[in-house]
From TrEMBL, chains A, B:
It comes from Arenimonas terrae. The keyword Cell wall biogenesis/degradation does not apply. GO terms for molecular function: carboxypeptidase activity; metal ion binding; metallodipeptidase activity. One of its GO terms (cellular component) is extracellular region. This is Carboxypeptidase Q. The keyword Endoplasmic reticulum applies. Gene3D superfamilies: 3.50.30.30, Zn peptidases.
Length: 473, 473
């Protein structure tokens, strides 16, 4: 996942604790149905089995690999087996990045191997090792402040350590270093970049994640050290003698691949062309099996949609569950989805978009970006979610990464904020595996997504449209 | 470390809480000195700095590598810098085992990589991958019960999961599988062995450790899966179709290497030829930096010896701190030490041998194997240790792995039992790094070793000799 980039701009008016049908467009039967969905999910949902299936049978599924195609086939078959009314694929194109071998070692008197992993999008070392002195910086500002040319032929190391927070806000400065550090280092003449892993753990398992080269720099290889290895590099640098590291990385981007967003729908009974979307991303990084990032999101939202599909009476609007392609390398699935809706004139049909992409921890807050006139519906949904330990938080939050592109076109959104306290222990590492996922926590999330999607699809209230944001550069 | 293989046979007589000088050979000044050592260590010892130095400057130090030689030079210099009276090396020979590359992957419809590491002593796959069907066994008994020839051409997988206990007793059955599983599998015709890691963690970091081939079998490659990968293999096997795995391992034993036990002594003031030994092992596995296994033991006992060396008046007997060579691959250092003492007729000079080789967790018990007449001394030492949260436990315990060989020759021993609750989370993995070591916990251990070594060296009581054990086959 990526961090929130927008907050709901307007503070929202206070609402009455007892909500009228006229304001919420929901009657007592609707609320009973939502509560029943909630309780059914808590008794045991399909989410864990879905996560188990994806992570076991497909395993790692780096976008653009043969496993990507297996994941798409898996998702289509899973939607069908779970009784969705309509299952279809939409193409998503992107450049193909591949990781080959990757090795690093200290050379000289303190010779020893270092655990690294190339950042997604990085080039390699050009078929031979890069051996160079390491120059350390505390953070991106320090790197930017280095004199022009001062890193000529050196390996820049940025040791910024992210903080652990429930809402994950410590991640943002780390991910910025990961994304732009190589370009900043290259501007100073560096031959390579090493960063401390953008993670809160202390395991010898480095965190990958996407990076990009600015147009004005010659690419240099970029990799993350595991946190213990970053500690080690910092200790070695305190030995007051030059630290030379040898990097041998095989990686690069070549060619284009067409993957697919995989979509399953529960058709609305009255307004089938109006949609509430929930989903997660189908791809993962290659190091782990993508259990928390993001098989959990796929499993939670598939299970929630399937529960709604089992109702005797479908909700008014269509519930669309989306397994997005290639989120990790640049939100390609979310962008393609939004672009296709824009081309088809369907953006206005989007009543609410929500996404699960922050691991497998329990949900603690409901947030939303909707027309202020529709806030009573959100408040009503919040009342049904309250027994799950979920607070309704007006005026804060953001859409998820893959929902972001259609929200930028004006679509309303909801966020079910998860406890991400341990998310960055495993995120983008080999340790992102099924054992990190708790089935009961998934059930709580399925309950929340089922309630949200059902009531948002059932209400007669329109969630409106948000201001259109200018496209990112 | 390896687990206790012997227990003190005789239950020891109860002792009076108030101990007479005649029984303990220790006067009030001696006890004051011991208490002062304890308090000084608790205020901050040298142990963490020693561990930091060894793990940072030498890093991984697999026996027989160039890092082994660096570790020996490091230990000699460190003893000298810490003011030991006499520092010397004793040769230790052993065969050289080397790890090259190691890769494993599931082939077929669920293709994905698996995290493995070759067991120490294993052969490789002969320069080309071994691709074979996996046959699973719950434990060693199940493997032994397989019909002759039933594993022809297959890879045997043993899924035994060790239990977490403070005293580490869950390790023993797992280490037995690791040591002898390949021979058992080979007897059934298997082409390779995979085991679940002998560890209590859930990280994608497999646990290595020593194995041996029985004389009557043709060697087959043997490796451990990380625990999450073992889970994955077990899930894949439940898919009710054959599971084929490709192993590509480069490893083997060739040639002989001469390393050294590195010894530092604080010379006794009255009986310099009588010795109390404490120590840890200098070598480590290659995957981590051997911080808990066993830089901690080296650091704790070096720091304890150095504290005793700083006393205005040395204890009666010599305190000998031993950094043993190549414990990991077969207690070579401990065996060489015992053999040299036997050859020199010095076994009887050993009053007490103790060893720190169970990580960096706090000490909770004092145990000993001594002549029953000397038990009051142990009880007295226990009284000085009690403020450290250490209980005296008569009639139980065992010598450490490297002390074992000289104990088998009759030397008395003491054990300072550590809390190993998390030891097998990191043991023999890449995760055995300095960040797993707590400086305050080390200080508690330094306090305990300093008290034990000082009082055992100071007492006028003789600890006697134990029954000689027959040599292991």
């Amino acid at each position: 996942m990526r961090l929130p980039i927008s907050l709901l701009a307007a503070a929202l008016a206070a609402f009455l604790p007892s909500l009228a049908v006229a304001q919420t467009g929901l009657d007592a039967d609707d609320l009973d149905t939502a509560a029943a969905l909630r309780e059914q999910a808590l008794r045991g949902s399909a989410a864990w089995a879905v996560v188990e299936s994806l992570t076991t049978e497909v395993g790692p599924r780096l976008a653009g690999t043969e496993a990507d195609a297996r994941a798409v086939a898996w998702a289509k078959a899973k939607f069908e087996a779970m009784g969705f009314d309509k299952v279809y694929l939409e193409p998503v194109s992107f450049p193909v990045w591949r990781r080959g071998h990757e090795r690093a070692e200290v050379v000289g008197p303190f010779a020893q191997p270092l655990a690294i992993t190339a950042l997604g999008g990085s080039i390699g070392t050009g078929g031979r090792p890069l051996e160079a002195e390491v120059v350390a910086f505390a953070d991106l500002a320090a790197l930017k402040a280095a004199p022009e040319g001062s890193l000529a032929g050196k390996i820049a190391y940025v040791g910024y350590r992210i903080e652990r927070h429930r809402d994950g806000h410590g991640y943002s400065p780390g991910s910025t270093i990961r994304a732009s550090g190589a370009s900043e280092a290259a501007r100073k003449g560096a031959a390579g970049l090493l960063i401390r892993s953008v993670g809160t753990d202390s395991d010898r398992l480095p965190h990958t994640g996407v990076m990009r080269y600015a147009a004005d720099v010659a690419p240099i290889p970029a990799a993350a050290l595991s946190n213990p290895d970053a500690d080690q590099v910092e200790r070695l640098l305190r030995r007051d003698q030059p630290l030379t590291v040898r990097l041998d990385i095989e990686a690069g981007t070549q060619g284009e691949y067409v993957s697919h967003n995989v979509i399953g729908e529960i058709r609305g009974r009255e307004l089938p062309d109006e949609v509430v979307t929930i989903g997660g991303h189908l791809d993962s990084w290659d190091l782990g099996t993508g259990a928390i990032d993001d098989a959990s999101g796929v499993g939670i939202t598939m299970a929630a949609g399937a529960l709604i599909g089992e109702l005797k009476r479908a909700p008014r609007r269509t519930v669309r569950v989306i397994a997005y392609a290639n989120e990790e390398q640049g939100l390609f699935g979310g962008k393609a989805y939004a672009a296709a809706r824009l081309a088809a004139g369907e953006v206005g049909a989007h009543q609410i978009g929500a996404e699960s992409d922050f691991g497998a921890g329990k949900i603690y807050a409901l947030r939303a970006g909707v027309d202020p006139a529709a806030w009573p519906v959100i408040a009503q949904i919040g009342e049904v979610l309250a027994p799950l330990g979920i607070a309704t938080e007006p005026g804060v939050g953001s859409a998820g990464p893959d929902v972001g592109p259609i929200v930028a076109l004006g679509a309303p959104w909801a966020q079910l904020a998860q406890d991400g306290s341990d998310y960055f222990d495993y995120h983008h590492t080999a340790n992102d595996t099924l054992d990190k996922v708790d089935a009961k926590a998934l059930d709580q999330q399925v309950a929340a997504y089922a309630v949200l999607a059902y009531l948002a699809a059932e209400t007669t209230v329109d969630f409106g449209q948000l201001p259109v944001k200018p496209a990112a550069p």
